[in-house]
Each structure stands twice: as structure tokens, then as C-alpha cells.
Amino acid sequence: MAEPSTHENAPDVRVERDGSLAIVTIDRPKALNALSPDVLSALLGAVEALAAEGSAVRGVLLTGAGGRAFVAGADIRSMAGRTPEQGEEASRLGHRVAAAIEGLSAPVIACVDGFALGGGLELALACDFIYATDASSFGQPEVHLGLIPGFGGTVRLPRAVGLARAKELIYTGRRIDAAEAVAIGLVVRSFPDRESLFAGARATLAEVGANAAPAVALAKRVLVDSAGRRTESATELEIAGFGDAFRTNDMREGVAAFIEKRDPVFTGV
User: Fold this and answer.
1) Which UniProt keywords are present, listed alphabetically (predicted)?
2) What's the CA gap between 189 and 198, in Å, rounded?
3) Most buried residue among 35, 42, 49, 268 by CB atoms closer than 10 A?
4) Phi, psi angles (nearest 5°) of residue 32
5) Which positions are catalytic?
6) For the structural domain made of 3-209, what CATH number should be given?
């Protein structure tokens, strides 16, 4: 059973812990979990607090409360009357949250149940991958408001689905259902309902957690940092990460266990 975290987060963002698993919930169901500046700040604080725990956190589930939306987008009312400079400031805060999620050493699964639109899709894209219920839908509808994605959509969506498809989704602002999202590679797996969604996500993180934590963290670091780089630059990051793996006790244990034909006993160091 997950228990509330001791982290001092705003009520709109809840963090629960179940051992080494953290469940982060955006809890504004009446507003479809819209990302106001206060919510983004609270979410940033929650993620930074988890990062400070280091290897004590082996996996994170990010979700929205209420069953209608993961996050239906940024808080549109909070945008009214903003100056261009204030618009840039809001965008930077969204990017800080996304970067903090990518910077976590533990894998983060976006558990989408309902709408993941605009900033909601961008938040999900900052996670390592997306699981969703069959009732979910996705889109970057900012052009309908005279805007463009501001929390990383123009950067991360092409990486997920390819440049041409990302252009189509962003230029049209159309929504896609879970089946299409799976077909184009935006969503890794879909589930019939919320219960099976979380069961599947937990099972995946349990499988990941059986591996060497330093190796998972190194793989995430290289995957995140090499995205979008030229091949020559990206391969140097992999070479450095591969070398860093040799500095860990878990690498020595994993190789020894293979040679000795036994199961490894990883310690996370």
C-alpha cells in the first residue's frame, strides 16, 4: 500500500511512496489537472525532492487524478494578459519541470488516463515512456489558441513519432486516440482501464528494479543526453557511459554472476 510522502508539496501535487516506488499525482480534477504556474512549481519541487533521495527511488509513476484527464493542458486563464516576456518565463518553468523529470536517475512512466493535451502531452513526453488507458487521447492543440507548444513539444514529439508526423500533429492541433498513439509509437502500451494501467506500470518498474540501478541510470543518462546529437557526438556519450559502468560494484557482480552461472545480487552501487 502506498503511503503519503513527507515532502511538503502543494495540495495540487501529491507524492506517495511504496517502498522504492514513488507515485506523483497532479490533483486538480475539477480543472482537469491543468498546469498553472503554482502546479508547475509544486511539481518541480516534488521532482527535485525525489532526485535528492538518489538511489532510494527506483521508479516513478506520474499521473493525474480524477480519471478524466492526465493533464488537459496548461492553465489557459493564467495566460490571459501575459506579456511576451511573461510568456517566455512561463515556458522556462515548464521546461525546468521537464528537464527535472529527464534528470531523475530512476525511470519515470507517464500513466495517462484521459486527456493528455498541450502541456499535458509535453509533460508525458518528458517521462521515459507513456502507458495509457484505451480511453485516453493526445494532442498539441496550441495553434487553436494562436500559440505553439511551449513546454518541449517541438523538441520531444519529433523524437517520439518522427518529424513529419510531429509537424502534422502540431500544425493541425488534432487529437488522436490511444490506438493511434500506440500505432505511431507515442504510447508504448495501452490498457483497458486505470487499474490494469497501474498494474502494468508497476510490473514494468519491478522488472527494471531487478537490474543494476547504476546501469539503468547510466543508460537513461546516455539516452537523454544523446537525443538529437550528431552520431559522432552521441557515440562519445555512450563510450563514456560504458566506461562509467566499469566503475560500479554492480557491474563486477553482474559479470561474476554470469561467469559463475548464478543469479546476480545487485546492491545499487
Assistant:
1) Lyase
2) 12
3) 35
4) 55, 35
5) 122, 142
6) 3.90.226.10
